[in-house]
Amino acid sequence: MKEINVSKIIPVVKKLCVDANYYAGEDLVEKIHEFLEKEESPTAKGILVLILKNQKIAAEEKMPMCQDTGIAVIFVELGQDVHLVGGDFYAAINEGVRQGYQEGYLRKSMVDDPIIERKNTKDNTPAIIYTDIVPGDSIKITIAPKGGGAENMSEVKMMKAADGIEGVKDFVVDRIKRSGGNPCPPVVVGVGLGGDFEQSALLAKKALLRPLNEKNPDPKWAAVEEEILERINNLGIGPQGLGGRTTALAVQILSMPCHIASMPVAVNVNCHASRHESAIIQ
Q: Where are the domains of the chain?
């Protein structure tokens, strides 16, 4: 059993919050370059060039690549041989978010009451935290800042088994079609299949964490991803909704078993600033 003081978590989360908002991942940059080479629309090509320029400026000037620095969504893989000491684990994560968003000059977007008062919490807490217990004696923390424009275009549908894979494909494509330019395309589309109502949504969000240069390890889902991506890019929405063949950079699927009477399907959308950073505490 390894003891880890929760005080070690605070600076790690603080840095992840800042880095995720300042620096675009290499896989994202490479994927945009890939689509830039294939794009035919002059307007779309121009927008993709500007996105790449914006990413470079953000990294060099150490400033957010997007003004919406998002809800702090935190995924934790907590080793079962870790004994946390020195305080409250979730309080430490939130303190890291608080420091990161304040000292990194990141926009604070959380309101304390979702409907009536809607007062800004002024430090972007509380974070949305998901914890998985895994083998080992370390803690892996991944932050995925989630902007409101893309998150608002997400959806869960409780489909019938009779709808089949074609029904799933149609739903995903239609969701992006109805989204138009609202999620700031080109987007990354996470799809969660199976589980139940809330698990499908979590699968869709976790699917967005897969590096964009990695194919789905299951060949049948890799083929479905490619087909859906092609259909989405044939919609003509294009970068920022101004036309072109680069509406989505990737479609990424995660699946799990489900009840015989259900077929939950969820779509979670990331904007072109598809952000996530990870660190391991040992």
A: 2-21+65-146, 149-274
